[in-house]
Write a structure and sequence with these properties.
heterodimer, A: 89 residues, mainly alpha, 2 domains, 3% strand, B: 568 residues, two-stranded antiparallel sheet
Chain lengths: 89, 568
C-alpha cells in the first residue's frame, strides 16, 4: 500500500472495494442456494422456481435501465432548457 | 368538551402563533402543537362528532374512523418531525405556512362531508404554494406559480364533480362511489391530480425540488397522501386506479433513473410509491386497502427521512446535483446512515417499514389472482431499489470524491433524522404495532422465510444490476421533458404566435381604418369646408353663404313638409 492509498478513507481503498465485491457476490450466491433449504412458495408456480427472484430482479432492472436510456435520447435536454424558453420563469 | 375541537384547529392556531412569537416560546409552539394535535386526534371517537346545517346541507366537520385517525396520526407525527428538523433553520413564515398546510391535511382526514373536505383541500393548495415560494429563488417563484395553477385547476374540477354529486344525490356525505358518470369522474380526476397521476405528474417533480431544504420535507408528506386517503374513502375498488397506479409506478422509476438532481430523484420516487398505493386502492379488497393505508403511513416517514437527508446535504453544501456531489459519507456519516436507512425502507428491504407494508399490496394482488399486477409490482420493487434505494445514497454519499468536506447536519436536523430512522426500523421489526391500527383486521404475516428470501434475491440482484450497469447511468447535466413541456413550451409558443397574429391583424386594421378616415375626411371637406379667401370653387356646399330669401323659402318648404307629414 502506497502513501496515497493510506490517505484515503478505508472504505474507498481498492483493497476494500475488492473485498466488498467478494462479500457481495458470496451473499448473492448464498441467497440463491438458500432456496434449496428454504422453499419459496410462489403464488403462481413460476415464482417458486429456484433463483426466480434473482433472475426476475436482475432482468427487470436491466430492462428498466435500457428503456430509460433509450427514452433519455428523446427526453433529455440541457438543464437550462426551460430557462432559455422565452417568457418562462 | 375537548372532543368537539377539530385537531386541525390546533395546527392552525400554531401557524398563527408561530408568526407572533419568538425564541423559546416559538420553539415550544413548533414542537408542542403537533403533540397536542396527536392527543386531540386520539380523542376523536368513531362516527360523526360535530354536525350543523348550512344552506340546507348537513355539514360534518369532524368524523372519526380508524382510517381517518391513522392518516391524521401520521400527518401530525410528520409535523413534529418536520418541525424538529426545520425550527432552527427555516424562516418563520415557512414554518407557519407548513403548519397551516398540515392543518389542511388533518382537516381533510376528519372531513365527514364534501364541503368541509373541499375547503380543507383548497387550504392545503394555498399554503403548500407558499411553502414552495419560500424556496426564495426565481425558479421557486415560477415553479410555485405553475404549482398553484395546477392545483387551482384540480380544485375547480373537484368542485364541479362535488356539485354534480350533491345535486344528483342530494347528499354531501363522504362515502364510497365509483366513477360511473360525469360528476364522479370529475371528483376522481380532481383527486388524481393531487396524487400526481398522469398526465399531470410533472407538477410534483417540478415544484418540490425548488422549495427550501426544509420546505421540501413538509411538501413530501401531505398533498399526495391526502389524495390517497381521499381515494380510499371515495373510490375503493375503482378498477381504473389499478392501471393509473401501475403507470405511476413505472413512470417514477424511469424518470428517476434519468434525473440528476438529488431531490428530483426523490420527487419522482414519491410518484412511484404513490402508484403502489393508488393501485392498491384500485384492487379494493380489505387487504389491499390495509396495504394502501399502511404503505402511506410508512412512506411518509421514510420519504420525509430521505428528503431530510438530501436537505441536510443541500443545507451544508449548497449543492443538490449528483454531478456535484459524492463522497460525503466521510464528513456527514450520520446523514449518510439515516439516508441509507430511508433508502432501504423505500426499497422494502426486510427489517424496514417498506417491507412490512408494500408486501401487503403484493399479497392483495396475488389474492385476487392479478398475475400481471403482481409481477409488475415485483419488478417495480426491484426498480425502486435501483432508482432510490441505491442510486440516491450512492451518488450523494459515495461514487467519486467530490472534494466537499461539509460538517454533518445540525443537531436538530440530526435528531429528526434519527427519530424517523428509528420509526422506519420499528415498523419494520415490529409490524404489528402498525397493523393494530389499520382500518380492517389484519391476518397478515409479513415475515415468512420464503417470502423474505424471495425479496432478498430480488433486491440484491437489483443491486448487482445497478453496479454492473453503472456506465449506462452516468449522470449528465440534463433535465427530462415531461407532459408539462406541452404547457411550458408549446402553449407558450401558441400564445406567442397568437400575440403575433393579433399584432399583424392590428397593424392591417390600423392601416385600413386610417384609409377610411382619410376618405371620410375628404367627403366632409367637400361639404363643409369654410370659405377661404376668394377660393369659392373649393368651398363646401353646406358652408356657402345663402341669401335671406332663399333661406326663408327653404324653411317654408320644410315647415310645409312637416305639417303634411303630421296630418297624414
Amino acid at each position: 500500500m502506497n502513501d496515497h492509498q493510506k490517505e484515503e478513507h478505508w472504505l474507498v481503498r481498492p483493497d476494500t472495494i475488492r473485498l466488498l465485491w467478494k462479500v457481495f457476490i458470496a451473499v448473492l450466491v448464498l441467497t440463491v442456494l438458500a432456496q434449496l433449504v428454504i422453499g419459496v412458495k410462489g403464488y403462481f408456480g413460476v415464482d417458486g422456481w429456484i433463483g426466480f427472484g434473482a433472475a426476475f430482479g436482475f432482468l427487470s432492472c436491466l430492462i428498466m435501465v435500457v428503456v430509460a436510456k433509450g427514452l433519455g435520447f428523446v427526453l433529455k435536454r440541457n438543464e437550462n432548457y426551460y430557462r432559455e424558453q422565452p417568457r418562462d420563469d | 368538551m375537548i372532543e368537539l375541537i377539530s385537531p386541525a384547529y390546533i395546527l392552525i392556531a400554531a401557524a398563527i402563533l408561530i408568526g407572533l412569537t419568538q425564541g423559546y416560546l416559538r420553539t415550544a409552539i413548533v414542537l408542542g402543537a403537533p403533540l397536542l394535535t396527536l392527543v386531540a386526534i386520539w380523542l376523536v371517537p368513531d362516527g360523526v362528532v360535530t354536525t350543523f346545517s348550512f344552506l340546507g346541507y348537513q355539514i360534518e366537520p369532524l368524523e372519526g374512523s380508524p382510517l381517518r385517525r391513522l392518516f391524521a396520526t401520521i400527518f401530525a407525527t410528520m409535523v413534529f418531525g418536520g418541525g424538529l428538523y426545520a425550527f432552527r433553520q427555516a424562516r418563520w413564515y415557512e414554518l407557519s405556512a407548513a403548519y397551516a398546510y398540515a392543518a389542511g391535511a388533518v382537516g381533510v382526514s376528519f372531513a365527514g362531508d364534501l364541503i368541509t373536505f373541499f375547503l380543507y383541500w383548497e387550504f392545503m393548495a394555498l399554503f403548500s404554494t407558499i411553502v414552495v415560494w419560500c424556496g426564495g429563488t426565481p425558479g421557486a417563484r415560477a415553479a410555485g406559480i405553475r404549482y398553484a395553477i395546477m392545483h387551482l385547476l384540480g380544485g375547480i374540477i373537484l368542485k364541479v364533480g362535488i356539485l354534480g354529486v350533491v345535486i344528483s344525490t342530494g347528499s354531501v356525505d363522504v362515502r364510497p362511489m365509483l366513477a360511473t358518470d360525469f360528476s364522479t369522474w370529475m371528483i376522481l380526476i380532481g383527486l388524481l391530480i393531487n396524487a400526481a397521476a398522469p398526465p399531470v405528474s410533472a407538477w410534483l417533480s417540478d415544484a418540490y425540488p425548488e422549495a427550501s431544504p426544509t420546505g421540501s420535507v413538509f411538501l413530501s408528506a401531505f398533498t399526495t397522501k391526502t389524495a390517497v386517503l381521499a381515494l380510499i374513502m371515495l373510490f375503493p375498488g375503482e378498477p381504473v386506479l389499478i392501471g393509473v397506479g401501475l403507470y405511476m409506478v413505472v413512470y417514477g422509476i424511469i424518470y428517476a433513473l434519468l434525473e440528476n438532481d438529488a431531490r428530483r430523484i426523490l420527487a419522482y420516487s414519491i410518484i412511484n410509491q404513490v402508484g403502489f398505493m393508488v393501485c392498491a386502492v384500485g384492487i379494493g379488497t380489505q387487504m389491499a386497502l390495509n396495504g394502501a393505508a399502511a404503505h402511506a403511513f410508512a412512506h411518509i416517514i421514510y420519504k420525509a427521512l430521505l428528503f431530510m437527508s438530501a436537505g441536510a446535504v443541500i443545507y451544508r453544501t449548497g449543492k443538490g446535483k449528483c454531478t456535484e456531489l459524492g463522497g460525503l459519507f466521510r464528513t456527514m456519516p450520520l446523514t449518510a446512515v439515516c439516508g441509507i436507512i430511508g433508502a432501504l425502507a423505500i426499497s422494502g428491504f426486510p427489517l424496514t417499514s417498506g417491507f412490512t407494508t408494500k408486501t401487503m399490496i403484493s399479497q392483495a394482488a396475488a389474492d385476487q389472482s392479478l398475475v400481471t399486477v403482481y409481477f409488475l409490482l415485483a419488478a417495480a420493487s426491484a426498480g425502486v431499489f435501483l432508482h432510490a434505494g441505491i442510486k440516491f445514497p450512492w451518488f450523494v454519499f459515495f461514487q467519486r470524491d467530490s472534494g466537499l468536506r461539509p460538517k454533518d447536519a445540525p443537531w436538530n436536523m440530526s435528531a429528526a433524522m434519527v427519530l424517523f430512522s428509528g420509526l422506519c426500523l420499528l415498523i419494520g421489526i415490529f409490524p404489528q404495532l402498525l397493523y393494530n391500527f389499520l382500518p380492517y383486521p389484519v391476518e397478515y404475516q409479513a415475515y415468512k422465510a420464503g417470502k423474505v428470501l424471495f425479496y432478498l434475491q430480488l433486491l440484491l440482484f437489483s443491486g448487482l444490476a445497478f453496479f454492473l450497469l453503472l456506465p449506462l447511468m452516468r449522470r449528465t447535466l440534463t433535465i427530462s421533458l415531461d407532459t408539462d413541456w406541452l404547457w411550458r413550451v408549446v402553449l407558450n409558443r401558441v400564445a406567442e404566435a397568437g400575440y403575433e397574429a393579433l399584432a399583424t391583424t392590428g397593424n392591417v386594421m390600423k392601416a385600413r381604418v386610417g384609409k377610411a378616415l382619410a376618405g371620410l375626411h375628404e367627403i366632409a371637406e367637400r361639404h363643409f369646408r369654410p370659405r377661404q379667401k376668394e377660393d369659392r370653387e373649393r368651398q363646401g356646399i353646406f358652408a356657402q353663404t345663402w341669401s335671406i330669401g332663399g333661406t326663408a323659402l327653404w324653411i317654408a318648404v320644410l315647415l310645409t313638409g312637416y305639417m303634411l307629414v303630421y296630418f297624414i
